[in-house]
Amino acid sequence: MNSRKLGYGIFDSTTKIIFVVVVAFIIIVGAKTAYYYGYHLFNQTAVYDGEGDGESVSITIEDGDKAGEIAEKLADAGLIKDKKLFKLQEKFSDCKGKEKAGTYTLTTKMTPEDMLKTMSGLVQNEDGTWVEATAESSSGGNKALEEDEELVSEEESEDIDVEGGESEEGEDSEGEEEESD
Q: Does the predicted model carry a pTM greater than 0.70?
């Protein structure tokens, strides 16, 4: 009877130790996974972080593609490393659900956030800010708006015209009238 109690005691202790080790393992793996996704969710990196522009890849997004389908296409093209992470990044992005159908030229130097912005119809200016693409400039790439400078200069000239009292067009037309008199 004494040996029976000893056997049950050893079995009980062994079972408890195994249970504690398994629970600790699950907690450690869960913590590592949570840290990995949390870190990369807010600290996005490109697949290629060397010198140069990286490799350019054309991706076609179909109408109605969800984040999972887009992640699959990007992973197959070598533009992202982790499909689950990309889906989380899309979920917490300002571009959530705004991806537009089309063919986009993306590079391995782009972060997932840059890819999402490009696929949402935004383009990056020379100063690094993202703005809505116009119909003429929406080529699917991430090039800056070429006519952005022209738009700014037109707006500035309108402000000057209002402040100056007469517009340049008015001066030209008055000058022409004087010549014809």
A: no
